[in-house]
Amino acid sequence: MQKWSQGDSTSRFRRGRPVFLKPSDGDTFDNRNGPLILEDRLTEERTNVVNNPFLALSIQQQRARLPIFKYRNHIIYLLEKYRILIIIGETGCGKSTQVPQVMYLMEAGWASDGRKIGVTQPRRIAAVTLASRVAEEKSCKLGEDVGYFMTDGILLREFMSDPLLTQYSILMVDEAHERSINTDIILGLLRKVIMVRQDLRIIVSSATLDATLFRDFFELNDTSDKSKDITSIISVEGHIHPVTIYYTRNPVPDYIQKTVETILDIHKNEQPGDILVFLTGQDEACEVESVNKQLFEAAKDLRKKEVDKLWIVPMYGSLPGFEQLKAFDSTPYGTRKIVVATNIAETSLTIPGITYVIDCGFVKLRVMNPENYFESLMKLPISQASAQQRTGRAGRIRPGKCYRLYPQEEYDKLLPNTIPEMQRLNLAAVILLLKALGIHNVLRFNYLSRPPSFAMVEGLQSLYYLGALSKDGLLTNPLGIQMTDFPLPPQHSKTLLCSGELGCSEEIATIIAMLQIQDVFVIPSRYRHEAELMKRNFSVEEGDHFTLLNVFTNFMQNGKSKQWCINHFLNYRGLCRAQAIRDQLLGLLRHHNIPIKSCKENGELNSVLRCLVKGFFSQAAYYHYSGDYVTIRNEHHFKIYKGSAIMVIFTEVLQDSIRDVSVIEPEWLYQLVPEYYEFGTDAEIARRKVEAKNQASTAATFFTGCLFSAQAVCIACSEKASEIQCRQVSQNRFKNCQVLKVWWLCQQSLFVDGPGLDYFISKASNERLSKVIPRVEEMDESLIKFITYGCQMNINDVELVRSLLLSSGYVETDDVKEADIILLMTCSIREGAENKVWDELKVLRKIRRKKGVVGVLGCMAERVRHNLLTCTENVDVVAGPDSYRDLPRLLAIARCGSMAINVQLSLEETYADVVPVRKDKSIMRGCDNMCTYCIVPYTRGRERSRPMNSILDEIRRLSDEGVKQVTLLGQNVNSYRDLSEISFLSASFVEPGVAPGFRTKYKPKRGGYTFLTLLDKVSQIDSEMRIRFTSPHPKDFPLEVIQLIKERPNICKQIHLPAQSGSNIVLDAMDRGYSRESYLELVDRIKTVLPNVSLTSDFIAGFCGETEECHRESLDLIKHVVYSFCYVFPYSQREKTKAYRHLRDDVPKEVKDRRHQELASAFRETALKHNEALVGTKQLVLLEETSKRSSEHLRGRIDGGVSVIIHKYYNDGSGLVELKPGDYVVVKITSANSQTLQALTLQTIKLKDFENL
């Protein structure tokens, strides 16, 4: 029975038991599980060196001595209770080898159903050696019960075919503190997987990591109930003795020289014990050999004195294995061993006898330079975590000492942890991988540490110029999709895929395979000169890439002989691996039907160089008079890396030098990648830019409508086309017309085919992927919660959205915590309205903790979309007022983990065909008035009206359903004008214009159906249905509209008449289009026609330039008109408005607040006066709902809109009658305050009969 297995998914059965094969053992080709995927070239050729001080003990005794052994039951318990376990295990505690066995030996059942336990390692060599150790402890053959550990790259390839990792029950991500790019991507993907797979267990282990960071990243529990946590942490101590740390008093100018001095000082004055010296990484031979040379000279002088001998042992990655093993040999009597190493000795290796450690404080890491965007090895200060790792090497056997060659204050300045690769490397390969996994919006991926913006931009641009991404950011077909199958950096993949058409695929496959090897040439310390001479025998004048090709060809011709490699100072294991990689690459090329050819057939060796240009065109350089090589683009200077020939194309950058270079012809760049470089003199380049701009402008002018027209004529040459559609037009059709040809080429580039989300979903099992990347049609049953801010138009918009989403299968809920989706309908009219939304987003963030989708809709979504995109409140969807139809798609994208946005304003969208759930009807959207303070024209767009017939049909339907009241809504409702149908006016007809004394800034509109016509027809549908409308502008109240309101009993005698200010100075600054006097004249006309009218208004306190006198005029206007209600707000400037651009907000906030309170107090006085005048009168009330304060009372409104509270029951003379919402009742007003009326019910009645009382 299969109990535990690991690594490669390929298996065979021997003697009825599963046997796991090495990737090279099988004769079948699997392009998903190769060893290439972006592994670090710095580490992959390190020889496996293992030291076991307890070799005399049995394996079981050795295991029992490990610190983690006593925690095995704790680990089993935590895995049963939690889904994610973070293990902080100090070096040497046994976590990497014992945790998988704990799960197996205790028969926890995690693999009893045939699924696997996966363990990943950042480095390939660690994955192999640890698996070997586990197999040894299990007393089985590696590949049978115990499979191979995986590198992070192999697990990433498994995500491509099995996104939910269904074959695994437990995944252990070991050495997570190294934070490689692959590790961070895996962690982000696993966070998505655990939201779908409840049965998966994840273990994250390391010696030094920020456990809290990892816990918070994985924790999905957004409540205060700790019993619902899914993440736990366990710490395991290691075997380490006390280490005394010494610092220098002052910074060290030359750490190489200081290292030698410190070694000699320790040797002369300290007790016996070996010394481990840490120097930097790449080009370590130079530094290590420099130290060795100085120490050899010092050792000669020491021989004359009575001190122990010095035995100097170098240790770095490119050394042959037998030389690395010398560091683990026992030190002879009377000798002190000095191990001069790079960071290869920082982790995973325990060198016996080490008592003293010398830490130079530096390390070489791969970093993308933000100035030139080249990824190179740079010498950087280490982190505090690395310093602790180095210090720990001195205390593995007995108490030791660590000498840090920097002051303590410099240590305090070091970063706590090494910067993750995600934040310091080129992201092109990461973006390509995420796109292949269906994660289209890479900005919203769950990064443990978010990458810098410049790296993301450079990655996207790099992929675009390589042809992997279209202008829309989609993978191109076929190139982009093919590149995702190659476990290589994108530049390497592009070079390989172009090799077939240039007839050199065999040579390019060899070169790309050789580039994956860290050091092809071996430089032994005692045979350095001979090794350099032998290297020259392989060099060719064309450059380093042909040198690599020459080495591999000779290796194959000599039967892959190990002895031949030793004689010629070549890396035998590296060449063997290059052969395996080459075979895999050729298999991938055949898989994609790329012809396998050799340039030897035609003798065109230049085709190899031309192919390299196709992939590495961005890394071209020319020789500069200063002696440097300067990149053609951006002109960055580089030195020649030692051993390289003259060149102009390079594939490797080492801080300020370049290597792996070859000579190319300059015209190849123009021929192969003309879109990337500009060629010619400065004058020629400038002239071409002007010509291209003029041609593009002409083409754009002539052919703006070509995609939609049946016939077009080129004005430049009068040549006609019967059909102009970019997907069908050929270049030859207009071969004589250069303008049209330029236009066609420009248009053609816009239609680069790229797969959509459905393509990636279809690439894998729908059953697996639909849970991670749901389709739009598969979003049924998602619970949605609406939160509304702002005016009645926003309330109506919520009803539109509700109707759209409920019809798509969504289910509404009132529980914020239960909802899968929360949508906030927002208002931007004032700062206070937006602040409420920001506060709500913060509350939601605390409550939900990144669970589900949060969307911001409406005006605020359009106005501050950039802030919403970059805010920390986890907004996933941003949809403007005209993009609600797109919400199902936007929500589906957000459910996949990406941000979705659509804030495009429309000149036509009115949602005429969407039936809202509520009874209020939006008849128009947008505003053309452009008042200086108002943001509405910028967030809601231009005025456009619904077709009148659609409005009338909806109101007839509501009437049939028994609805008793409808409110017509619009930003400027009485500016309604339906132009969807042509209407012919008679000569005697005079169209209503604006109210006398009012003006507009735009040309008066003519024709169509006006608000007067609509109001007339709506009021005739049902005489028992009340008609209200809001919000109007005073200018659109001609006498005809007022007269119609008087004539129709079912049109309510309530008019909202926004004044905004009572001062002509302020009204003029607001550009309202009227004066105080014309406004009062309109009020008088209305009151003359409608004596019992109820007027409401809007006022702004503290507008730009408002004085105390202006403010008093506003107070006076409120008292003069006697409004029944007013909306008053302190002024807040809105970006984009004319006031924001041209006026100064010069009224202090405290003054605004005071004036606001005074306006509110004034309107409450007039409202009370208005309402008290109604006491004792009979009023017709339409009951609307149960009172919020008492279930025994009902709330309704009189014709003028004032709320009335009456008792639920009344006596009609024959007994008690229960009233209900929808009833019309005659009441007598008994009391009043500024907000509501109290009344006594007299009788029920019909609306049309009330006039006869």
Could you explain how this protein is built, in words?
By secondary structure, the chain is α/β, with parallel strands linked by helices. It has 7 domains: 59-236, P-loop containing nucleotide triphosphate hydrolases (Rossmann fold); 243-421, Rossmann fold; 426-485; 486-672, no CATH class; 782-904, Methylthiotransferase, N-terminal domain (Rossmann fold), CATH 3.40.50; 925-981 and 991-1173, Alpha-Beta Horseshoe (pyruvate-formate lyase- activating enzyme), CATH 3.80.30.20; 1175-1244, OB fold (Dihydrolipoamide Acetyltransferase, E2P) (Beta Barrel). The chain has 42 helices and 46 strands. Strands 5-4-6-7-3-8 form a 6-stranded parallel beta sheet, sandwiched between helices. A 6-stranded parallel beta sheet has the order 9-16-13-10-12-11, with helices on both faces. Strand 18 (629-631) and strand 19 form a beta hairpin. It starts with 10 loop residues before the first strand and ends with a helix. Belongs to the methylthiotransferase family. MiaB subfamily. Belongs to the DEAD box helicase family. DEAH subfamily. Residues 76-227 form the Helicase ATP-binding domain. One of its GO terms (cellular component) is cytosol.
Summarize the structure.
This protein is of the alpha/beta class and 1253 residues long.
Number of strands: 46
- Would you give the CATH topology of the largest domain? pyruvate-formate lyase- activating enzyme
Helix content: 25-40%
Q: How many distinct domains?
A: 7
Mean pLDDT metric: 77
Largest sheet: 6 strands, parallel
Strand order of the largest sheet: 5-4-6-7-3-8
Count, helices: 42
The CATH class name of the largest domain reads Alpha Beta
Query: How far apart lie the N and C ends?
Result: 93 Å
The parts where pLDDT drops under 50 for at least 5 residues are 1-51, 103-107, 642-647, 696-779, 982-990
Radius of gyration: 39 Å
